[in-house]
Amino acid sequence: MIPFLDIKAINKPYEEAFREKMDLFLEKGWYILGDEVKAFEEEFAVYCGSKYCVGVGNGLDAITLTFKAYIEMGNLQIGDEIIVPANTYIASILGIIHAGLIPVLVEPDANTFNINPKLIEAKITAKTKGIMVVHLYGQLADMDAVMNIAYKYNLLIVEDAAQAHGLSFKGSHTRTFSFYPGKNLGALGDAGAVVTNDEKLAQTIKSLSNYGSQQKYYNGYLGFNSRLDELQAAFLRVKLPYLNLENEKRKAVAKRYLSEIKNEKITLPVCSADHVFHLFVIRTENREALQKYLADNGIQTQIHYPVAPHKQEAMKAFHHLALPVTEKIHQEVLSLPMSSALTEEELNHIIKVVNSYKL
Ligand SMILES: *Cc1c(COP(=O)(O)O)cnc(C)c1O
């Protein structure tokens, strides 16, 4: 069976370096917010072309704490509305809700899967204060259009970049990242970060992530415990220098899929040149049949995602929304194996099998 994602194989080349980091870690005996977190924050800020990076516990907290910090700073108020794509992983929306804000869902462009900027203005009310963009599957959303709208209505922009490490971003907005093991830059456990050029925001997030304190045992905010783990930071520092190379390998896989998959039952994604291919997502009408056919032929696939956020059990207050493009996408998408560890042989097999699907 060709696995959908073999994280162990992706991490294999780094194992020696991980062991060295682990030895150093044990030798030092400093477990929380040490030199590794500080160094990773500096290195990831530089990598992203941002002034500041704050490590946090995971990608959801990166989103939640960013919005909480804007509330503490007075830029946002509880109950403000934030525009967010309806077609996303639920974490983008949960972060807004957990901060006490109201997510306003906007349909995607069916070709790119990303938010359709033409539909944003109709959703703007007097309470709208921000737009959260998601670069879904690793493809940049239509930032020129989003920035024009944000400028016109004086809205904050926050980017959920959890699937877009290494993307050439546009503008200098605050960006939230997840280093969940399966992401393009993945830790060996949970980890996340926020990058920003706003010093006050960075300080506020840092404080909120550490019990609202900037000085030990003095608490300026009602904070949380969501710190980037010292050991995960050490592991991430091992992998960061190779992120561009990892992304190039993903792009090479995608290039073969895009040029060699030819099957009228399958719609290939519309991809820009700088796509970092966290996922390679095709569409097909009878998804269950294709998934079963691929599995029968030794190819594991996954669905990102099977149920739209507004249709989830947890999101009852949103069940009444009619979001037909989002719902159709969730019925038709299927993710083919995508990783830097796929071999030529495996790729040849996947392409051959996909092309011979007839059902
Ligand atoms: C993975 C992901 C998150 C959440 O990250 P965690 O580290 O799992 O909390 C948020 N948004 C998107 C788009 C993601 O893919």
Task: Describe the fold and architecture.
By secondary structure, the protein is α/β, with parallel strands linked by helices. It folds into two domains: 7-106 and 113-241, Aspartate Aminotransferase, domain 2; 242-356, Aspartate Aminotransferase, domain 1 (Alpha-Beta Complex), CATH 3.90.1150. Helix content is 38%, strand content 14%. Strands 1-7-6-5-4-2-3 form a seven-stranded mixed β-sheet, sandwiched between helices. A two-stranded antiparallel ribbon has the order 8-9. Strand 8 and strand 9 form a beta hairpin. The protein is globular and about 65 Å long. The structure holds pyridoxal-5'-phosphate. Pyridoxal-5'-phosphate binds next to helix 4 and helix 5.
Architecture blueprint of SSEs:
Elements: H1 7-11, H2 15-28, H3 35-48, E1 52-56, H4 59-72, E2 81-85, H5 90-98, E3 102-106, E4 128-134, H6 143-153, E5 156-160, E6 174-178, E7 192-196, H7 199-208, E8 213-215, E9 218-219, H8 230-239, H9 243-260, E10 280-283, H10 287-296, H11 324-332, E11 333-336, H12 344-355
Helix pairs in contact: 2-8, 3-8, 4-5, 4-7
